[in-house]
Amino acid sequence: MNTLNRSPSTELEVGAVLTDALPSTLLTPEAPERYTVSAVFTRRPTRAEIDAIHDNDTRDALTAAGYPAAELRVSDRRLEIANTNLEELTDGLAAAIAERLHVISVDTAAAHERLEAELMEKSQRETDRVALVALAAAAVTFARADATAESEARWEGEGGSDASTHPRAHNGHPAVP
Question: pTM above 0.85?
Answer without folding.
Answer: no
